[in-house]
Design brief:
Blueprint lengths: L1 E4 L10 E4 L10 E8 L3 H8 L17 E9 L11 E7 L5 E9 L8
Antiparallel strand pairs: 1-2, 3-4, 3-6, 4-5, 5-6
């Protein structure tokens, strides 16, 4: 799958589109095909290295902590959501084609993906 990633800290120029293995939903998780991923201040602070003491990340790193998309995989023990559902929620490595969500909610139909 394609993902945005950085292998060193710095400005936006350290971000590169890379090929990485697809993640899979574990117990209590779902995987989505990402339609939109959020970018917030903590994402660029992690990327530029200013949070290394408080939020250490292994490099290379795929940023993104929230995403919206369509469920395509449901982990063991998950109830109330099915493949094909539109959701948004808390993720890891959301700047990619697929993301695993630990927490989610249904996307209201009147909202756009963005």
């Amino acid at each position: 799958m394609k993902a945005m990633s950085f292998a060193q800290t710095g400005g936006p120029e350290v971000l590169h589109l890379v090929d990485v293995p697809q993640p899979h939903a574990g117990p209590g998780q779902i995987r989505i095909t990402v339609r939109a991923a959020g970018v917030n201040p903590v994402d660029w602070k992690i990327r530029n290295g200013s949070t290394l003491r408080t939020i250490p990340v292994a490099l290379p790193h795929i940023p993104g902590m929230e995403a919206a998309g369509v469920v395509d995989e449901v982990g063991a023990g998950v109830e109330g959501v099915a493949v094909g559902d539109e959701v948004f929620g808390a993720a890891q490595n959301a700047s990619a084609e697929y993301a695993v969500l630990d927490e989610w909610a249904p996307k209201p139909p009147e909202l756009t993906w963005a």
